[in-house]
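Objective 1b of the project was to move from sequence-level analysis to a structural picture of ligand recognition. The entry below was assembled by the postdoctoral researcher (A.K.) and checked by the PI before modelling. It contains the amino acid sequence of the target and the SMILES of the bound compound, zinc ion.
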Amino acid sequence: MPSVATIAADLDRFAPRALAAEWDNVGLLLGDPQSEVQRLMTCLTVTRSTAAEAIEAGAQMIVSHHPILFRGAKKLSLNSPDGDIVWPLARAGIAVYSPHTAFDNCAGGINDQIAERLGLIDVRPLRPKRQASFKIVVFTPDADLAKVSDALFQAGAGIIGQYSQCSYRLAGTGTFFGSDSTNPTVGVKGQREVVSEWRLEVVCSAEKLDGALRAMRTAHSYEEPAYDVYPLQPSLVGGGEGRIGRRSQPVKLVQLVEEVEKEFAVAHVPFVGDQAQSVSKIAIACGAAGEFLSDAVRAGADAFFTGEMRYHDLLTAEAKGLAVILPGHHATERLGVERLSERLQTTWPGLTIWPSRRESDPLSFR
Ligand SMILES: [Zn+2]
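Corresponding predicted holo structure:
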């Protein structure tokens, strides 16, 4: 039987945390990584109802799209909103993993699945992910070159795509004049020294920068190593949030809405726009994703598909001539959770895995 940690690692690979929104709280959020899993339930949200289902069904793990403890709980005692859910799960030994926006945005994730259901081609991220990075340039004497470069590589600098330990080295000449209070590693204080040095250059991601500089300073033998850190133009790293694609043939908005009603099993899908307007390019962001409206406009979309949006954002879309299709938060994401259940079952055929049967859209229509 796989452990919670093994399943969490598989989910981390499928929906990498780097794709999650910065404000998000994703990954293994509750439980013992070493405990074994035989029964696993997926759901959109851990509520009292879905938590009770998992406990009654003897699950050891829940994979819930929306994170538990999202707003920073202050207490987990019973009769508190978070406590009523988390405490019974903890007592039953049930772990909770939440992939959330990493699952929205990963290859084969919810937004990709929606693009497939809408029959889109040429699908790409609506908001491509860019990574801030830096160039570290450090000047070392001959004797330090290997030590300093090894330290930088070990701290995670020098990675370009699938290549690691990337650096550029240029031999040159450095000068210095050490005051009376100095203790130069090479040469002597009180006179101008001319020494042969290397200019060593490596790229470094923003999150590794502090560690790389610390490692460089520790490995460098100079009292005051000379180094520069240059910010680089943020680079596209592949992937990103939301999706945009096009239909092979334009379709009337009213037809598209009818398709969405069938495909997402929603009786009446609200929409913004003229029923007869032609739609070819469609932007997608599952859940409550009005924040992507300006990305959709910028990308030249004819229609924006999301779960729910604020009234004033709908007016903005209308004013810009962008159609909006709103099948509801639940409808845009619940199918993804069901697909995730199938995926996990394929990976772990010996386990009992199911999407919550009690979970339903809190919104109803007469
Ligand atoms: Zn959601």
